Amino acid sequence: MILQNNKEPLLDVQHLKKYFPVTGSLGRLGGIKGQVKAVNDVSFQLFAGETYGLVGESGSGKSTTGRTVLRLTESTDGKVFYNKQNIFELSKREMRSVRKDLQMVFQDPFSSLNPRIRIGHTIEEPLAIHSLADGNERRERVFEMLNKVGMQSEHYYRYPHEFSGGQRQRLGLARALIVNPKIVICDEPVSALDVSIQSQVINLLKQMQTELNLTYLFITHDISVVRHISDRIGVMYLGRLVEEAQTDSLFQSPLHPYTQALFSAVPGRGKNRERIVLKGEIPSPLNPPTGCVFHTRCPHAMEICKVNIPEKREMSPKHYVACHLY
């Protein structure tokens, strides 16, 4: 378990917002009709060597958070500090040097690999972009990385379609790690894989973290996976972070009604734990509820929940919750 006492965060996300404009049938000419509030005032920190799990239902804004942190999607508001620099203020040229330290593993490895280029050249490309090696040295570094992620040197010469889903995910990880990053954002990296392959990839991620001193932001909707790999967990609902705690604390004592409902759906959580069934569907981020965004489905909703946005409070050491019940 990573201890954060007296340590500066490696990555500090402050009040991150990402709104997508909704236009009329004529596009921009028809004017902006509204905004999809995909990420709405999210703050968290990453500390060196830890894994921070971000969990929630589909549509909660997890993947958009990861992409916005890396500036693959430009933010609407907020700040992200890396090495005490707000990376949202960096120019494209300055951002290129930062990208070497901030890498991403995507949910669908096949769509992120060029089908017309051999795997070796795909993994080599970041080395060329950042001028980290050339010629034979580049090739040798790729061979070394392929072996580290459980692949063989001969795979250097093959194309993406010649690999299974699990193998392609290993190749995606190899491409991310080839530049020796500090932080890797894993966006649903095992959701499309069989259960047996999931465990292999998760174990590989943990092994690489130990060997290379990596820091992970691990995005998933799978509670059992996030529990296995994470040191701390943040729970998102409709663009907001509703609870955050160290993994053991969160699973022993989930406080937010949404977190309790998520955990009650996990098989094997205990025979005496009552299944909490949420009513209705997750609201549209185009028109989120006022006050607490969860109040339309919450079994404990009060009048104040419909009006005021709950503040994040520390209920026990490093266990935060945004709920009017507390």
Task: Please provide a brief summary of the model.
Pfam families: ABC_tran, oligo_HPY. This protein has 326 residues and is an alpha/beta fold. The chain is 29% helix and 26% strand.
**CATH H-level homologous superfamily name:** P-loop containing nucleotide triphosphate hydrolases
- What is the alpha-carbon Rg in Å? 21 Å
What does the largest sheet look like?
8 strands, mixed
Assembly status:
single chain
What is the residue-mean pLDDT, rounded to a whole number? 89
End-to-end Cα distance: 27 Å
- Please count the beta strands (DSSP E, at least 2 residues each): 12
* CATH topology tier name: Rossmann fold
CATH architecture: 3-Layer(aba) Sandwich
Poorly predicted regions are none
**What is the element string, with H for helices and E for strands?**
EEEHEEHEHHHEHEHEEHHEE
Please list the strands of the largest sheet in the order they lie side by side. Answer: 6-7-8-3-9-10-12-11
Class per helix and strand makeup: alpha/beta
Q: Which range does the strand content fall in?
A: 25-35%
Whole-number count of domains: 1
What is the approximate shape? globular
Number of helices: 9
